[in-house]
Amino acid sequence: MPRAEEIANLRDERELVERAGHLLAGADEFACAANDLHTWSAMQKFAQELPKQRKLRIRKVYLSRVLLDPHGAEHLRTLHRLGAEVRISDHEINETILLDGRVAILADGPGYSVVSKPDLVRGISSLYEAAWRSSTAFEAYETRFAELRQYTPQLLDLLSSGSTDEKAAREMGVGLRTYRRRVAELMDVLGATSRFQAGALAREAGLL
């Protein structure tokens, strides 16, 4: 069994920054996996306030639906311009922060777990590296979904209105096959298996 100090359970973001902020302040490599921009917002704000004298390698993997939100897309573009390595995944991610491969921080509902037991950290690191390898470079994904982001708000409105595909295609001014292709692309980005789930995930992501 791991010793108590090897796994610390924290209640919220405030306690996370108070108890784990010094670990980030002393790290040389910061790796992060997130499904959205909210889970690690406090730690990212703390990182932005750190002195810039030293070079911190930053790697981040985000779920693809972040790019459907113009604010999310701009945030990732800014990270990329500032030198962070950013990749995009089509699959749900285990939300994780890794610091120098020695400490792992896991999101657990409203709380967090800080793990320093070497065997556990190695296992978590392996999962992160697998997600990193299977994801797509941000700039390539940006090109692919530039068009999708433009018509996403209207498409979501039509899906939530209950319009038939034929009527929705006419309202968008496209052919039926094009409309259905766009719906399929949107469901793929959101990781949805049904149109109903696509609407629910879009609301969760703040796209509706």
List the helices and strands and how they pair.
Blueprint: E1 7-10, H1 13-25, E2 29-34, H2 41-48, E3 57-63, H3 70-81, E4 85-89, E5 96-99, E6 103-108, E7 111-115, H4 118-134, E8 136-137, H5 138-161, H6 165-172, H7 176-190, H8 195-204
Parallel strand pairs: 2-3, 3-4
Antiparallel strand pairs: 1-7, 2-5, 4-8, 5-6, 6-7
H-E order: EHEHEHEEEEHEHHHH
Shape: elongated
Which structural class matches the secondary elements? alpha+beta
Mean pLDDT: 86
Instruction: Please mark out the parts with pLDDT under 50 across 5 or more consecutive residues, or reply none.
Output: none
| β-sheet strand percentage | 15-25%
What is the topology, as strand order, of the major beta sheet? 1-7-6-5-2-3-4-8
CA distance, first residue to last residue: 45 Å
Report the radius of gyration as a whole number of Å.
19 Å
Number of helices: 8
How would you sum up the major sheet? 8 strands, mixed
Q: Helical content, roughly?
A: 40-55%
Count of beta strands: 8
Task: Describe the protein's architecture and organization.
The chain is of the alpha+beta class and 208 residues long. Helices cover 51% and strands 19% of the residues. The chain has eight helices and eight strands. It has helices at 13-25, 41-48, 70-81, 118-134, 138-161, 165-172, 176-190, 195-204; strands at residues 7-10, 29-34, 57-63, 85-89, 96-99, 103-108, 111-115, 136-137. Strands 1-7-6-5-2-3-4-8 form an eight-stranded mixed β-sheet, with helices on both faces. A hairpin with a 2-residue loop joins strand 6 (103-108) and strand 7 (111-115). Helix 1 (13-25) runs parallel beside helix 2 and helix 7 crosses helix 8 (195-204). The longest helix is centred in the last third of the chain and has 24 residues, at 138-161. The N and C termini lie far apart (45 Å).
